[in-house]
């Protein structure tokens, strides 16, 4: 692979000699700043990560790894266990293990996020270098990544597997790239590497299979050589093993996002294609996140949905990829074939999932890794161009993304400083200080702990409970109809039910209380706790 840009002029040679050093210095400063701010202020946590930690803290009483305990819906005085299939174990196992070393969970999260962020930066550097891109292009790319919202998000709002996948994915892709001759022994590291990806995030199975498939067909005139058939056979064996292992060891053991039914988008395949292609362009810069912030902010909502933004991004994505292909086709042909084949395979999987009406969300984060695979080529194509219009357009878009990323980090950090600090050392975004203090008064250790059930409106709040049994729903997001359909039978000596005060007026609080069908609706005692309230019934 040549390092110069064939036929397009000097390109990166125009960058001043100190650009890589300057970019490196800024990358180091920003990562240290994110880490220091996260360690001092501490992050909050999204509910998906909260579910994982709720399960993690019950595993000591469960029968096996990755099993969690919860109340038996037919008799809440008892517990039942279930395999945690919806959330990958890495997001809670790694911070949980670090926490056991003696630090708080909030600080453990920052340690894990920082470690995998740095691991990922080294990995993407090594991968981009293996593709043959020059150092100035690589460092500009990494600086843009570090300025991005998706990179610094987990330092303030822990998003679980996203950070872990960022850290391990480039190393897996690099391994496959190095082994793209597909000798028989390559099957073992391909399968083992995919297992690591899945441990980091469940979508790692899609990335692993797509990367292996893309590497099999990226050679020069691959369609015309018999050796491609051999590579496809080896790739097929590896992908089949990945799929069989994942299916029987994980997918069949419980619910995942790909197995929950939902409704199709009104525009069907047109919208899904536009979304997928747009995300392959936007995810490396968090542009769809920016669109959500600008147009769907609840306080000043401009659009009813993100659809218009998706349709606007689609032609921009197509034009960007077209320019990249034209600019790089001579010097980086194998990289282009590999990147677009991998991205195409991932896009097809998501299109099939969406068209099957499964509840995979419309988030650009699902396309982050393939987008970063393409991003180095986009950066090189635009900054090496002789056209001022191309360079300025790229600078404008990348600059806007970086400004949004850094300012949003500052905004989130300031917001976190005003949230109450939980008992485990992370910020509670959805709980009041009064509620946290009240939980500590009722969460008593001793023989009565198993006779107490504390029911909370979001799983990360349940992490404040250390001794009593606990459970939660997503009261603020679940529909009133769903809450009315829930039913918990049986009685326990001490039952506490926390809800947000705003749910008192929309019927949700009443529905939650009535879901405990063996408790009289007029037997609840209410305790006001700021913007939250607690209802309880204690058996004398």
Notable features of this structure?
540 residues; alpha/beta; 5-stranded mixed beta sheet; two-stranded parallel ribbon; 20 helices; 55% helix; 9% strand; disordered N terminus
Overview of the molecule:
55% of the residues lie in helices and 9% in strands. The chain has 20 helices and nine strands. The protein has a five-stranded mixed beta sheet. Strands 1-4 form a two-stranded parallel ribbon. Strands 2-3 form a two-stranded antiparallel sheet. The protein is globular and about 80 Å long.
Helix content: 55-70%
Strand-residue fraction?
Answer: 5-15%
Tell me the Rg in angstroms.
Answer: 25 Å
Instruction: Look at the helices and sheets and give the structural class.
Output: alpha/beta
Distance between the termini: 77 Å
- Coarse shape: globular
Question: Which strand order does the major sheet show?
Answer: 6-5-7-9-8
Mean pLDDT: 93
Query: Given the structure, what is the number of helices?
Result: 20
Order of helices and strands: HEHEEHHHHEHHHHHHHHHHHEHEHEHEE
Number of strands: 9
Low-confidence stretches: 1-12
- Main pleated-sheet profile: 5 strands, mixed
């Amino acid at each position: 692979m040549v390092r110069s840009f064939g036929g397009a002029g000097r390109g990166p040679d125009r960058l001043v000699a100190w650009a890589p050093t300057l970019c490196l210095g800024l990358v180091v400063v920003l990562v240290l700043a994110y880490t220091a701010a996260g360690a001092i202020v501490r992050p909050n946590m999204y509910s998906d990560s909260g579910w994982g930690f709720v399960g993690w803290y019950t595993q000591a009483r469960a029968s096996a790894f990755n099993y969690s305990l919860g109340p038996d819906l037919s008799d809440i005085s008892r517990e039942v266990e279930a395999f945690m299939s919806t959330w990958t174990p890495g997001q809670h196992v790694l911070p949980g293990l670090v926490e056991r070393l003696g630090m708080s969970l909030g600080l453990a999260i920052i340690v894990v996020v920082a470690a995998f962020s740095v691991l990922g930066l080294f990995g993407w550097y090594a991968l981009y270098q293996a593709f043959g891109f020059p150092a100035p292009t690589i460092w500009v790319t990494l600086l843009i990544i570090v300025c991005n919202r998706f990179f610094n998000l987990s330092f303030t709002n822990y998003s679980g597997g996203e950070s872990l996948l960022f850290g391990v994915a480039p190393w897996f892709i690099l391994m496959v790239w190095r082994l793209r001759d597909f000798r028989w022994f390559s099957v073992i590291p391909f399968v083992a590497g995919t297992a690591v990806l899945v441990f980091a995030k469940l979508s790692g199975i899609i990335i692993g299979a797509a990367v292996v498939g893309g590497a099999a067909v990226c050679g020069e005139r691959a369609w015309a050589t018999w050796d491609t058939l051999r590579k496809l056979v080896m790739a097929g064996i590896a992908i089949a093993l990945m799929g069989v292992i994942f299916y029987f060891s994980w997918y069949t053991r419980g619910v995942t996002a790909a197995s929950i039914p939902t409704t199709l988008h009104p525009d069907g395949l047109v919208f899904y294609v536009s979304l997928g292609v747009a995300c392959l362009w936007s995810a490396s810069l968090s542009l769809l996140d920016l669109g959500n912030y600008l147009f769907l902010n609840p306080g000043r909502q401009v659009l009813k949905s993100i659809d218009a933004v998706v349709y606007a991004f689609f032609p921009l994505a197509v034009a960007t990829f077209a320019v990249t292909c034209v600019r790089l086709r001579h010097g980086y042909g194998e990289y282009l074939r590999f990147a677009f084949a991998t991205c195409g395979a991932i896009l097809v999987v998501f299109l099939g999932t969406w068209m099957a009406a499964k509840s995979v969300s419309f988030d650009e984060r699902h396309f982050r890794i393939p987008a970063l695979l393409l991003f180095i080529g986009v950066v090189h194509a635009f900054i090496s161009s002789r056209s001022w219009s191309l360079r300025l357009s790229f600078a404008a878009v990348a600059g806007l993304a970086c400004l949004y990323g850094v300012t949003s980090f500052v905004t989130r950090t300031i917001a976190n400083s005003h949230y109450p600090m939980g008992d485990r050392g992370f910020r509670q975004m959805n709980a009041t200080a009064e509620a946290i203090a009240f939980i500590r008064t009722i969460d008593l250790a001793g023989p009565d702990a198993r006779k107490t059930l504390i029911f909370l409106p979001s799983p990360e709040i349940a992490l404040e409970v250390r001794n009593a049994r606990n459970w939660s729903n997503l009261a603020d997001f679940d529909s009133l109809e769903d809450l009315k359909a829930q039913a918990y039978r049986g009685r326990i000596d001490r039952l506490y039910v926390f809800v947000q005060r705003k749910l008192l007026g929309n019927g949700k609080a009443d529905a939650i209380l009535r879901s405990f069908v063996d408790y009289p609706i007029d037997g609840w005692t209410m305790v006001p706790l700021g913007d939250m309230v607690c209802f309880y019934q204690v058996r004398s």
